[in-house]
């Protein structure tokens, strides 16, 4: 019985490790993110959020940093007016939203800025 438990435990451990390696994009840990910011590869999340405030006012609910096709990305969920939650995908190197994907209707550039 003990041998069967051990075999099941090892099988589960190996299948979990294999699933993590096979993931199409893995999220880095905090230390890797700090090194990417320090090297200038990406903007910090704080800098990205400060830059984003002129377009999309709200409270950060969730943030993920990941690499896709060689590009670092932030996926953000922001709670905006009336409790709506918007999802944004930003280039982590520039903090900019992709021009090809329209911004959610709740997020528009601040028209009160000086021209």
Q: In short, what is this structure?
A:
With 115 residues, the chain is of the alpha+beta class.
General description of the model:
The protein is an alpha+beta fold. It has a domain at 26-91. 32% of the residues lie in helices and 23% in strands. It has helices spanning 2-21, 30-38, 45-52, and strands spanning 59-68, 71-79, 85-91. The protein has a three-stranded antiparallel beta sheet with strand order 1-2-3, with no helix packed on it. The chain is globular. 11% of the residues are buried. Residues 1-23 have low confidence and may be disordered.
End-to-end Cα distance: 76 Å
Proportion in β-strands: 15-25%
Secondary structure tally: strands: 3
Extract low-pLDDT stretches. 1-23
Largest sheet: 3 strands, antiparallel
- What is the typical, i.e. mean, pLDDT? 77
Q: Largest beta sheet: what is the strand line-up?
A: 1-2-3
Order of helices and strands: HHHEEE
Q: In DSSP terms, counting alpha (H) and pi (I) runs of 4 or more, how many helices?
A: 3
CA-based shape: globular
* Class derived from helix and strand content: alpha+beta
Specify the helix fraction band: 25-40%
**Radius of gyration from the alpha-carbon trace, in angstroms:** 19 Å
List keywords for this structure.
3-stranded antiparallel sheet, single chain, 115 residues, globular, alpha+beta
